[in-house]
């Protein structure tokens, strides 16, 4: 497993060693020893799976209490995946990391607790799966505005297009007003 630290040191990109032949491929999705050596927790309490059509933007979601670390990957299609640092005392507070995750590159991203997370679907559809370090807690869920000008995420949305958004994502909170982690 190749583990790469991004410019936000706690967000990791993980590229597994893929063994392939005429039958298909195999790779390790989770190995406690390997991931622990990179600082990724070994307890996940919930697995989630979503399927979205091209142009869908989900996020930027986080929980202000019961903050979830997420180990994310794509099993069909491709997405542009984003993590935004919402830890007030972090040197990268307000900065974002983005990476393409796809069924063909098998790349995973570790999004630690204290970050907002979201993705944009760049193929006709994508299936997105992720492991969480804490349970979903609706009363603590928050949504950071996906296109906040102070964060400045460079989404790969084609010129003249609008993303497909849920009502929750359409009405996210601006960075200047959002709940952050102390």
Summary, kept brief:
Helix content is 5%, strand content 40%.
Essential attributes:
mainly beta, 182 residues, 13 strands, five-stranded antiparallel sheet, Jelly Rolls, globular
Polypeptide structure, described:
The structure is a single chain. Strand 3 and strand 4 form a beta hairpin. This protein has two helices and 13 strands, in the order E-E-E-E-H-E-E-E-E-E-E-E-E-E-H. The termini are far apart. Helices cover 5% and strands 40% of the residues. The strands form three sheets. Strands 1-2-10-7-12-5 form a six-stranded antiparallel β-sheet, with no helix packed on it. A five-stranded antiparallel β-sheet has the order 9-8-11-6-13, with no helix packed on it. The chain has a two-stranded antiparallel ribbon with strand order 3-4. The protein has one domain: Jelly Rolls. It is globular and about 50 Å long. It is mainly β and 182 residues long.
> N-to-C SSE series?
EEEEHEEEEEEEEEH
How would you characterize the largest beta sheet? 6 strands, antiparallel
Contiguous helical run count: 2
**How many β-strand stretches?**
13
Task: Note the topology.
Layout: E1 2-5, E2 12-15, E3 19-21, E4 24-26, H1 32-37, E5 46-53, E6 57-63, E7 70-76, E8 78-85, E9 96-102, E10 108-111, E11 115-121, E12 125-132, E13 141-143, H2 167-170
Antiparallel strand pairs: 1-2, 2-10, 3-4, 5-12, 6-11, 6-13, 7-10, 7-12, 8-9, 8-11
């Amino acid at each position: 497993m190749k583990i790469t630290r991004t410019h936000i040191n706690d967000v990791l990109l993980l590229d597994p060693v893929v063994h392939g032949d005429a039958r298909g491929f195999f790779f390790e999705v989770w190995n406690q020893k390997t991931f622990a050596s990179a600082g990724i927790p070994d307890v996940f309490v919930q697995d989630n799976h979503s399927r979205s059509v091209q142009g869908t933007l989900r996020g930027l979601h986080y929980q202000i209490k019961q903050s979830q670390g997420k180990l994310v990957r794509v099993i069909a299609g491709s997405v542009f995946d984003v993590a935004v640092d919402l830890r007030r005392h972090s040197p990268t507070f307000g900065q974002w990391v983005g990476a393409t995750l796809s069924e063909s590159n098998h790349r995973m991203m570790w999004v630690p607790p204290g970050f907002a997370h979201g993705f944009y679907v760049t193929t006709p559809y994508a299936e997105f799966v992720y492991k969480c370090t804490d349970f979903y807690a609706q009363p603590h869920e928050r949504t950071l505005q996906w296109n906040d000008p102070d964060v400045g995420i460079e989404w790969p949305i084609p010129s003249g297009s609008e993303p497909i958004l849920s009502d929750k994502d359409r009405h996210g909170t601006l960075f200047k007003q959002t709940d952050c982690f102390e």
